[in-house]
Amino acid sequence: MTKEGLDTVLSGNRTLLTKFGILVAAIIAGLFLFFQTIDSNEADSSIVLQSVTGKLSVITKPGPYLRFFGTSHHYKKVVAVNFTGSEGITATSVIPMIKVRFLDTSLGEAKGVARFRLPTTQEHLINIHREFGSQGALISNLLERVVVEAAKASARTMSVEEHYSGGAGQMSLDFDDQLRNGIFVIDQVIEPLPRRSRQDTEDDEEETLRGRQRVLVVKKKDEKGDYVRTKNHLAEYSISVISASIEEVDYEPRVNERLMAQKQAAADEALARQNLKKAQQEAETAKALGDKIIAEARAVSEKEKIQAEIRAEKESSVAIIDAKREVEVARQRKLEQDEILELQRKEAQGLEVLANVRAKAAANALDPQLVFEKKLAAWKEVEIAKYQNMSKAQLVPFVRMGQGQGAASDNALTMLQLLGVKAAADLGMQFQDIGKTSNWQNK
Fold it and tell me: Which of 22, 46, 100, 336 has a CA positioned 20 to 30 A from the CA of residue 92?
């Protein structure tokens, strides 16, 4: 190839390269202009757009928008501040665990998460942008600071023992409440402890002021009874709290040792209390068994006593009945003897009367008829009295002589006749001489 031909080829190549370079530059310039003019917004973000003239505007809708060489500042609609201390966490802000100090000066590291919602209105978001300039500055200068401050303030109102014994939930609630409404204003109240005895004071002369009093932290209230709080910086920028919680607190080693000792002591105390309760139950069981044995023995003794009393009462009753029966028998016998003596007395009196009558008749030599009548009257009186007394005493058994009523009457009449004959014989009368004059009268 000649020199001229070579120059012609090189000249054509340079022209082609120039045109290609111009085309590439035009494409790059077009792309640059395109991206400087149009941009896109994510659904979870809001954009504060500053135009080339310095005017600020807010874009909250997702999708492309015209930027026109303006500067865009992205703000997440929801910002999460994570202070769990775990690795590989995806969050807007990840900070180390927050060191907190409890009321009793014990230290710990709090773990948790706080989530905030930024405003979407143009006025409030522009106000945030003017104050902080970017999302990073907003998080580091406001959100992370209020999270740390609220966590520390929540720990200052309780001791580590209170937190360990069930106050973790209250600490988490206080953390959320103070993020939403402001930090509690607290007052320190010094409460004196009961003084120890003189003997204890003599034994420990180095008693300190701390040993004689304790400091309590009380949440201050206003006249209406509402808690007094510090200024809520989140409310100034219309930032709301979605959720906030302290999941756990890692205590310092000396606190863990003390808590483990307390836990062991509590376990020992619970075991001792359980053993004491078991011993008390065993003692109560033994006492109940003893009471049962005593009650059974007492019941047997009472039963034997009652049986003995029943036997004694029975024997006493029998003895009383026997004594009464013997007394009654003796009384009946005495009555019978008295009746017999009375009959004998009556009979003696009758005999005496008869003797007197006979003597009087012999002395006066009375008329036999008159004598008979008087003897008969005396005899009748004596016999009636004798048989009346005999009928009352029932000394002579009743003998039924004969069968039927007529026979009984005849037998009774025969008995009376026989008795009359016997009485007449006793009187010495001769029935055939009744009504006759004596010989001496005839003479």
Answer: 100
Q: What is the pLDDT of residue 198?
A: 52
What whole-number distance in Å separates Cα of residue 336 and Cα of residue 330?
Answer: 10
Angstrom CA distances, 145 to 108, 139, 140, 246, stand at 18, 8, 7, 15
pLDDT given at position 234? 93
Nearest to 101 by CA among 155, 173, 151: 155
Q: Is 256 exposed, middle or buried (0-12, 13-18, 19+ CB in 10 A)?
A: middle
- Beta pairing, strands 78-82 & 107-117: antiparallel
* Together in a domain, 102 and 59: no
The domain total for the chain is: 3
- H or E element in which residue 223 lies: none
Question: Tell me, what CATH number does 181's domain have?
Answer: 3.30.479.30
pTM above 0.90, yes or no: no
What are the per-10-residue average pLDDT scores of the chain (443 residues)? 58 70 73 65 89 86 80 92 88 93 90 95 93 93 95 90 87 94 84 59 48 70 88 92 94 81 79 85 82 83 84 83 84 84 81 76 62 75 72 50 46 53 55 44 41
CA distance 113 to 83: 6
Question: What b/e readout covers 407-419, taking b as 16+ CB neighbours within 10 angstroms?
Answer: eeeeeeeeeeeee
Which pLDDT belongs to residue 333?
Answer: 85
In this structure, how many other beta carbons lie within 10 angstroms of the beta carbon of residue 163?
Answer: 27
Bridge partner residues of 215 (DSSP): 190
Q: Alpha-carbon distance 75 to 128, whole Å? A: 10
Q: Looking at this protein, which amino acid is placed at residue 200?
A: D
Is residue 316 in a domain?
no
83-115 b/e with 16+ CB inside 10 Å = b?
A: bbbeeeeeebbbbebbebebbeebbbbbbbbbb
Q: What is the SS3 assignment for 206?
A: coil
Quick check: is 224 in a domain? yes
Indicate whether 165 and 214 sit together in one domain.
yes
Q: Are 62 and 89 contained in the same domain? A: no
Res 94: pLDDT: 93
> Could you tell me the CA-to-CA distances from 277 to 271, 281, 282 in Å, in that order?
10, 6, 8
Give the helix ranges, DSSP H, for 41-140. Answer: 122-132, 135-138
Residues 6+ apart with CB under 8 A from 434: 368, 369, 372
